[in-house]
Amino acid sequence: MAEDTATLRRFNRTYTQRVGALDDSFLGIGWPLGASRLIFEIGESATTVRELRERLDLDSGYLSRLLRRLTRAGVVDVHPDPADRRRRLVTLTAEGRDVRRELDLRSEQRAASLLAPLTDRQRSRLTEALATADLLVRAATVHLRTVPPNDPIAVAAVGRYFAELDRRFPSGFDPGNAADSDAAAMSGDAGVFVVATSDGEPVACGGVQAIAPRTGEIKRMWVHPDWRGAGLGSRMLRHLEDCARDLGHRRVHLDTNGTLVEAIAMYGKAGYQPVERYNDNPYAQAWFAKEL
Fold first, then answer.
1. 76 has which bridge partners?
2. Residue ranges in the chain assigned as alpha helix (H)
3. Do the beta carbons of residue 244 and residue 252 sit within 8 Å?
4. Strand order, beta sheet including 76-81
5. CA angle at residue 236 from 253 to 243, to 5 degrees?
6. What residues contact 139, with CB distance under 8 A and at least 6 apart?
7. Which residue, of 26, 149, 203, 276, is most buried by count of CB atoms within 10 Å of its CB?
8. How confident is the model at residue 292 (pLDDT cuts 50, 70, 90)?
9. Residues 212 and 89 reside in one and the same domain
10. What's 236's domain CATH number?
11. Tens-digit pLDDT profile for residues 141-165
12. How many other CB atoms are found less than 10 A from the CB of residue 165?
């Protein structure tokens, strides 16, 4: 057994036992962990079955069984969305909201009891360690999905990317007709667009388009600021290079702005070499290429 997997498995056994995940009634609330987590995730406002499935990465059949059980108990209400009857909305009933508040209270009390024996220094060490572990485990389990550039999840990711560019560029950023050009260049046989999601939310994205025979360009590379430092950017870059190979490219180009120092450092570590300007992007200040 490898040391790293042995350590992770040992932590899983320790943690699931200490937080009560093995009990039929999680925290004495009357529901096992799976149902309790679902109640917590539904929250105070309506969500959809699809959002719950993507956020929790649950099998459709298992999620349906959980929802039926909670509905029969009067904790959850599932009904068609008036705005789109193909979707099913999930809300907590009044009783369900009471259960969620009690679940939240007991979870807080359990966490406090676990921390109580520790000194301030030990608590600080544990907090830092768990924050790092949480980020890295989530980074290791993101889903890389190829989607059309006009898919809602892609639009959301690129919108956040553009918003960050607008904040960081000294003169701001105007995307112009980028959405239309992306749709033409990064879909079908011409290119590809990839979104990384965690808990159903976009946390990174990037695309590949052709700019010459056997030459592709990586565009719209973005990683959510909260996820930087976990290796997700490098993973996305390697994935996009694989996509470029699949499209028949033997060389890839990319450009960036000088203010994006993290991206420039990542491209250098990945083997990209500076080249002369190859496009008319008004925001580009550095250009790179790599042989695949």
1. 92
2. 3-18, 33-42, 49-56, 60-72, 94-115, 120-140, 152-168, 178-185, 232-246, 261-269
3. yes
4. 47-48, 84-92, 76-81
5. 60
6. 198, 227, 230, 231, 232, 235
7. 149
8. very high
9. no
10. 3.40.630.30
11. 899 999 999 999 999 999 999 999 9
12. 18
Distance from C-alpha of 218 to C-alpha of 44, rounded to nearest angstrom: 40
- CA of 209: how far to CAs of 19, 64, 154, 200, 288, in Å? 48, 40, 15, 26, 15
What residue numbers bound the domain in which 59 lies?
3-117
Asked whether the beta carbons of 169 and 283 are under 8 A apart, the reply is: yes
User: Are residue 55 and residue 173 in the same domain, yes or no?
Assistant: no
Q: Would you say 166 and 20 are in contact if contact means Cβ atoms under 8 Å apart? A: no
Residue 212 CB contacts under 8 Å (≥ 6 apart), including other chains: none
Identity (one letter) of the amino acid at 15? Y
Tell me the C-alpha distance between 87 and 47, whole Å: 10
Q: Are 31 and 92 in contact (CB under 8 A)?
A: no
Within this chain, do residues 90 and 176 fall inside the same structural domain, yes or no?
Answer: no
